[in-house]
Amino acid sequence: MSATLFVQQLINGISLGSLYALIAIGYTMVYGILRLINFAHGDLLMVAAYAALYGMLLFSLPWFISFPLAIIATGAIGILLDRAAYKPLRQAPRISLLISAIGASFLMENLALVLIGGVPKAFHRPNCFSHVIIIGGLHIPVLTIYSPLVTLLLVLGLLYIVFKTRAGKAMRAASRDFEATRLMGIDLDRIIALTFLLGSSLAAASGIMWAMKYPQINPFMGVLPGLKAFIAAVLGGIGNIVGAVLGGFLLGLFEILIVALLPDLAEYRDAFAFLLLIGVLLFRPTGIMGEPFIE
User: What is the mean pLDDT of residues 44-61?
Assistant: First the structure.
């Protein structure tokens, strides 16, 4: 492989990893507080993509209005998901929460299938995201540059909320000891709602960028990216925000470089990702930055 091609693939891997990172943060935040793997989280990508598309098509909104509105709406749906599917089961065994999450995922996918239809729809990519920058032998779509930058800004904003605000301190306290936090008089329902709002909004931002990167959307478009982001969260250390971001970037680079170095195995790139998950669970179940399990 030439140096130019390697750099090209490295840039592509960073761009893909940034999208995984945004989705993985939602998994790790919810797990950190509720010890729940929210398998409906990936479907919020689909919700955001359709909301952004119909905002532009049905209401003729410019993209810079439609995209933020789609993110806000998806954040609200994340809160609704918690209130409808998880809050009634707070005191139930964790397996009940997991089953509810899987059921919520199927519900969102099939509801979209009934209301919108299963035929894939082309996603309108704004012209400002369609340009390609040519540097030497490199061909870099501007979206490939914007994705990591947007991810970096959103992650910095999230870290500020988590580490510099009272709500963030409450979130960190709840992740350490849920019941003790409740006894301190903190409204955990509000903290959990904020967690779902933030995680869902980040997933929505990733979903819109995903739809622009691969401009064809369908009711099941969030399934595989959601599972990949879960792998990224486990790789980085589920429950750790910085670990989720690191895991997302590493998974994106791993996928792209596997295809670049072993082109004959390109059709098995998803299988390699799941093999990576198995390897992490076998040899380092806490992930790269995860803390040891406390009994």
Answer: 95
